[in-house]
Amino acid sequence: MPGLMLIDIDRFKKANDSFGPFVCDSLLRSVAQRLRTLARDAALIARVGGGEFALIVTDASAALSRAKSLMEFLSRSYTVEGHVISVSVSIGIACAGDVCDSASELMHAASVALHRAQNGGGAAIRQFQISMLEEIKANDALEIEFRAALATLPRDLHSASGDCQFEVHYQPQVALLDGRLNGFEALVRWRRPQRGLVSPDKFIPLAEHTGLISILGDWVIAKACFDAAQWPAPRNCPTGSRVAVNISPVQLQDGAALIASIAKALRQSGLPADRLEVELTETALAADVGDTLDKIRRMGVKLALDDFGTGYSSLSRLIHFPFSSIKIDRSFIASIDCNSRDLGQQVGEKMICAIAAMGQAFGLTTVVEGIETPEQMEIARRAGCSEMQGYLVSRAVPNADIAGLIQGIEAAAATKEPCDER
Ligand code: C2E
Ligand code: CA
Ligand code: CA
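^ thats the input. predicted complex w/ C2E below
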């Protein structure tokens, strides 16, 4: 049974921008040459555009192992026009007869598989499966519904907005030393008609990918400031607790719009700037965002580095950004969840200790995420971290439940044994 392989040079456009079209035309010729050498028996080899090549193979059952050796061979560095260029390739494979009745269907199937391979960052091979088409359909439907849902966001936060499909819930962050309430993280939820609450992990990537995140993100900033300005102040903090809002890397790309959105939210809500914190992940920290972060910091707003420990940035680079706290990704504490003293557990614990020590050295607050058990809390406290967040204290709750939650956390802190103090 014949099949089609689509081979694409990952981030070819970037290479074109860096090296220029003359060098990249040579690169394409070298890639084509290698393809011809390794796939001599292919029925057809063609360039279909950009850095993408198509290969018709007569025996699709061997396509996967074939694709592996092709990927390895094509990813070796090239010397073209005096430049040494390293590229990776991704490959999508479709078999005729599987689901494809015509050449255009075969092409479409291979291109769906190729996109799937590149969506995960590239350097991957994917074979077309019918479930991929179903997922695309489901995602398209989700996008249509999400766009319609955005239209329900109220313009005015003062008026009741019964039909708004989005909600912001708040999860407390408490001091590890004495259980005192320090702040809340704002977490957005989408109440999808007939389907109930949808996790942000499902719709935030969609919102980022479609560029709609700014509309939702601006509303979350405004809503969180508006709500926080009305919360009762905890006894330990008469000026009121902090509220932390997640900011997507896409929002940070338009620094001026983000700053305007924060300034507007603070002005309209009356929330003091030092009660607002913005949470950013390492992926947001492109070279040119330093200026925006400095401006936000100068407004008096705090900055937190989210999901710390999962990225690849160097420490020396990170400490040049004006963060006041780091949030230790919950995967570290989760790895200490079992009773066994296996290597994974020890690594998680050592990482938390190391990050806590680093936080202390640089005067940063360290927040441990995902604390679910008293044992995990104890480990975080022994490690010297400052705050915790997790189901042990509370899940994220709707704004209407905040006053009761504040009372509950204060009552629990008051009953803490003096020997808990360190
Ligand atoms: P995140 O910023 O790391 O938020 C913490 C996530 O961990 C939340 O999931 C929270 O409910 C969950 N969590 C908290 N404590 C525990 C625990 O003890 N155990 C476990 N297993 N999970 C815990 P959620 O609300 O589903 O949010 C997922 C992610 O979606 C967030 O991860 C954040 O990256 C993103 N997100 C949420 N709201 C917003 C938003 O308004 N804007 C943007 N850009 N992203 C958001
Ligand atoms: Ca966060
Ligand atoms: Ca996090």
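The domain at 151-414 is CATH 3.20.20.450 (TIM Barrel).
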